[in-house]
Design a protein that fits this description.
Number of helices: 15
Strand order of the largest sheet: 3-4-2-5-6-1-7
Shape: globular
CATH class of the largest domain: Alpha Beta
CATH topology of the largest domain: Rossmann fold
CATH superfamily of the largest domain: P-loop containing nucleotide triphosphate hydrolases
Largest sheet: 7 strands, parallel
Strand content: 15-25%
Number of domains: 2
Order of helices and strands: HHHEHEHEHEHEHHEHEEHEHEHEEHEHE
Structural class: alpha/beta
CATH architecture of the largest domain: 3-Layer(aba) Sandwich
Helix content: 25-40%
Length: about 425
């Protein structure tokens, strides 16, 4: 049962019609293949087909692949397989990630992959108690094979002087663009300074701006490059949008959610304060909703995610902390209460639905000042997103004219006031 519950931690099985590679084609060790069979996996996704042979050949990689393409397995499987073959009992692989949620996801995936192997892993991230810190110290000093860490927490251990990364063979940076956006550039450079210069480095990023290429030049050696389906939502996503003033958004949200028999819904908002207020509003109207944001303690966040995954919570309100790195299956509806700041973030928000070859709906609320940002999203994905009329009881929304509103900062009456 444990293995079957791991089934959708990682893969989305977005296999093309021409895809023929199976996991048995990669010469994985029997223990690893047994785990994959128990989890129900047979075919490799495009990113896995391209990346695994390169990693097995010992080459560095810079890969551009968005959420939902199976990139986590693309780097984990060959690394786990190598550790199984060589019987390493030291810290062999370091995976750096931007958020604790992504660290937990990768660690959960490792529980499934490593079930029939002796490969050990630990997730290291902030927000835990002193006992957890001591457990992390023990794993770092006694040699967990794979360490999955957020930059700040790992540096806290490095500063104590007991961490030795002399035997690191693989450095993996996942969601590298998000780490740089969050200001972790100096932390990454410091961590790299503790590692052997002779190593295999794998850099995965959803986008490939100049700062990522600059980072790659500093820490990678003659990398192979992979680019997988960047900036295209999954084919199964029905996308639509509403042009609405801010004061129309709460009632619009209420009307869209009322009576909907959808087991899992995620609502993304721009700030944690707005997430809190949306959560209060939904609870006031007796919706089965919860919220996740940075003010929650780690155990509180874990409990919210457990309840959402097991369907005891129908609606989850979140900031972009969930738009990357959390693999939750069967999300039927994603609502962007606010237009994402960056066009790429839209891809990741929408990527929460239509996973595992399923279908889903993604709706976005656009106020006048966000119209030009939304037009940039349409330009990025190469298609115009259908604009739906507001429900009659809400009155008329703003005209959708991105060029007219490009430099305007007017708003409708705000639905929420920022706390001071």
């Amino acid at each position: 049962m444990f293995l079957r519950n791991q089934k959708h931690f990682l893969f989305t099985k977005l296999i093309t019609k021409d895809s023929t590679l199976k996991f048995s084609d990669f010469n994985f060790e029997p223990e690893l293949l047994e785990g994959l069979r128990s989890m129900g996996f047979e075919n490799a996704t495009p990113i896995q087909q391209q990346a695994i042979p390169i990693i097995q050949a010992g080459k560095d990689i810079i890969a551009c692949a968005q959420t939902g393409t199976g990139k986590t397995a693309a780097f984990l499987l060959p690394v786990v397989n190598k550790i199984v073959k060589t019987h390493k009992d030291t810290v062999n692989t370091l995976i750096i990630v931007p958020t604790r949620e992504l660290a937990i996801q990768i660690d959960e995936a490792m529980q499934g992959f490593g079930y029939f192997t002796s490969v050990s892993a630990i997730a290291i991230f902030g927000g835990k108690d002193g006992i957890s810190f001591e457990q992390e110290k023990k794993a770092l000093t006694q040699g967990a094979n794979i360490v999955i860490a957020t930059p700040g927490r790992l540096i806290a251990h490095l500063n104590m002087g007991y961490v030795k990364f002399n035997h690191i063979e693989h450095l993996i940076l996942d969601e590298a663009d998000r780490m740089l956006d969050m200001g972790f550039s100096d932390d990454i450079n410091k961590i790299v300074s503790y590692l052997p210069k002779k190593r295999q480095t794998l850099l995965f990023s959803a986008t490939m701006p100049s700062k990522i290429r600059d980072l790659a030049k500093r820490i990678l050696h003659e990398p192979e490059q992979i680019n997988i389906a960047v900036s295209k939502p999954a084919a199964g996503v029905m996308q639509a949008a509403y042009s609405a003033f801010d004061n129309q958004k709460p009632e619009l949200l209420k009307s869209l959610l009322t009576g909907k028999n959808i087991s899992s819904i995620i609502i993304f908002s721009s700030t944690k304060d707005k997430v809190k207020e949306l959560h209060r509003m939904l609870r006031k109207y007796n919706f089965n909703a919860s919220a996740i944001h940075s003010d929650l303690e780690q155990e509180e966040r874990n409990e919210v995610m457990r309840n959402f995954k097991n369907r005891s919570i129908q609606i989850l309100v979140a900031t972009d902390i969930l738009s990357r790195g959390i693999d939750i299956d069967s999300i039927g509806l994603v609502i962007n209460y606010d237009v994402p700041r960056d066009a790429e973030d839209y891809i990741h928000r929408v990527g929460r639905t239509a996973r595992a070859e399923q279908t889903g709906v993604a709706l976005t609320f656009i106020n006048p000042e966000d119209q030009y940002k939304f037009k940039k999203i349409e330009d990025l994905i190469g298609s115009e997103i259908n604009k739906l009329p507001l429900p009659p009881q809400l009155g008329t929304g703003p005209e959708y004219d991105p060029e007219k509103n490009k430099n305007k900062g007017f708003r409708g009456k705000p639905a929420f006031r920022k706390k001071r």
